[in-house]
Amino acid sequence: MKLEDIYFRMRRDIKEIEKEISMTIATDQKVLHQASHQLFKAGGKRIRPVFVLLAGHFGNYQFDKLKKVAAALEIIHMATLVHDDVIDDADKRRGKLTVKAQWDNKVAMYTGDYLLAKFLQLITELENPEIHKILSKILVSIVEGEIDQIKDFNNWEQSLKQYLRRIKRKTAILLAVSTQLGAIASDAETKVVRYLYQYGYNVGMAFQIIDDVLDYTGTTAQLGKPAGSDLSQGNITLPALYAVHCSDERDQLLELIKNDQISEKIDQVVACIKRSDGIEYSKRLAQRYIIKAQEALEKLPNIKEKETLFEISEFIAKRTY
Amino acid sequence: MKLEDIYFRMRRDIKEIEKEISMTIATDQKVLHQASHQLFKAGGKRIRPVFVLLAGHFGNYQFDKLKKVAAALEIIHMATLVHDDVIDDADKRRGKLTVKAQWDNKVAMYTGDYLLAKFLQLITELENPEIHKILSKILVSIVEGEIDQIKDFNNWEQSLKQYLRRIKRKTAILLAVSTQLGAIASDAETKVVRYLYQYGYNVGMAFQIIDDVLDYTGTTAQLGKPAGSDLSQGNITLPALYAVHCSDERDQLLELIKNDQISEKIDQVVACIKRSDGIEYSKRLAQRYIIKAQEALEKLPNIKEKETLFEISEFIAKRTY
């Protein structure tokens, strides 16, 4: 089954969730309305809603509950994106102007605040203290991760552990919580909730590692930005860390980066990292996370959504864009 | 009774609330910890906690519940302050360096996000859906108000109504909700809750109007910044709006501001606004809000905290710093 088929089968429910998000973020305040809807329409894969819905089938599937959980997670995600764009000084996201580019950093800041406020408002409708607690906890983790990311900018001394901790907070936690909450909102068994969490977490780790690899191996057309953009901005990801810590390219790389003017020599730096085993190492690590995700899946009951989650994990391991 | 006496009498409970805030915002992430504690220590009058506690006496006073409500409101307030400092480009607040000055705008942004996340985490402990709903709703209002404030920057055409709506969201709502939630958390009667809300709201409106007046009439020593600072930054408050819309100074003022280089002529602009009746008009309007607050108070049962709330309203009407 292709990814498109999965989305096609779920299209009605995803549309409903999108309607819920759109209604939730609607406001008379024009700038906030336009900015948050621009962000919303830039869309993306709606992977969090997909995970919530699929996980919901492992319990007593109630779409009305799942819809709100999925919308809340997507809104948190949007809030972090708009604040990330300020940090990354990003003018485009998925080919569209970012809020900070179309308006400015201040509007981007308040649009993020607004989305967090709306997120809070949405979850008060859920009236499930367990879900509240999980959601408020991950929000803290995400923000701590974002400030760690700033701290680790241009830090070539950071360890692999620091990198993994950062991508956990940046990406994996929100995916883990998507499957977890889908199961909890459907009153699934505790064990089932735990395995679904593990699936989401491991897929999320693999997803971010592959994302970081693609920043080196993708073409400008595929990425919508030149290769090595993360690095130019000071975001040192796994391929670069491998190259500097574990490869023969170490000395040459240190020479290239010694005066911090990386962006001027970005092509040389990227070439050097590619010569190291950094890309292959990263892909292997991503593959290990995919296997762990699939091991968690195996322990789940055999329903057809289990197969779908398996397909998604396979797709993430192999994606090239 | 003096304001100091009120604080002295409540000092133990306020200390406990401060401890709750400090524990809530503690984190291993060094920058977030330092930045949020710096903000916390800059302190201020803790007027929201004071309102929560005083209102709590109109019902079944349970300090443990009130403590969490008060801490949550103070944390929301801190989050909006740190984001405001980014908008206002403010280097100092209450004589201390702001987060954006000591670190930078990005740290200030994430410190605000972090505080909002912690706020959310704190209110999940309250397990009272009514309180959740009120708190999530005001957060939306506050953010909408902040973006309105940006929109209204340097807008001399704005109406009195726009100004009032803005200060409602900037200041009055949070004070209104402080007395309201203090009463709700103590299971006070519906009517009592309503009157306490009205008291907080009207005192809040008066407080902000007086604050805006003091920006014109205070000395640099009193304000910690030169008179007319709001205006220099483009924040057009009531005295200026009165001068341009309702006074004989209109033509001269329009001449002074016509090329938008206000900060260069700030002394002349301030003098012109002072010559209009703008300061007196604003004070009269503040006084009207104080009277409304006191009318709401009159309908409340005669307990000693009613007297205290009366004293606070009197103080706010007359304050000169």
UniProtKB/TrEMBL annotation, chains A, B:
Alphabetical list of PROSITE patterns matching this protein: POLYPRENYL_SYNTHASE_1, POLYPRENYL_SYNTHASE_2
Keyword line: Magnesium, Metal-binding, Transferase
Top-level taxon of the source organism: Bacteria
Cofactor(s) needed: Mg(2+)
Signal peptide: none
InterPro entries named in the record: Isoprenoid_synthase_dom_sf, Polyprenyl_synt, Polyprenyl_synt_CS
Biological processes, Gene Ontology terms: isoprenoid biosynthetic process
Pfam (any one): polyprenyl_synt
Molecular functions (GO terms): metal ion binding; prenyltransferase activity
Family: Belongs to the FPP/GGPP synthase family.
Protein name: Heptaprenyl diphosphate synthase
Originating organism: Vulcanibacillus modesticaldus
